[in-house]
Design brief:
The chain is mainly alpha-helical and 61 residues long. The protein starts with a helix and ends with a helix.
Length: 61
């Protein structure tokens, strides 16, 4: 394996580790906030509630 291939694989490894660490940080932040749906805009919460009601009505028959 020459130097060019070594650098290529090293950059892939570094990029993969960066993505893995970033995912862990985002997951930790989301888990630590514990806000759930409270941080959504009221319009979005209303739309989600309406969709849930529609799904419940369709499931009921």
């Amino acid at each position: 394996m020459n130097k060019l291939h070594s650098r290529h694989y090293l950059m892939i490894a570094i990029t993969g580790m960066f993505c893995w660490l970033t995912t862990g940080v985002v997951s930790a932040h989301v888990g630590a906030t514990k806000t759930g749906w409270n941080d959504l805009a009221p319009e979005v919460r209303a739309e989600i509630a309406a969709l849930k009601a529609t799904v419940a009505a369709l499931q009921a028959g």
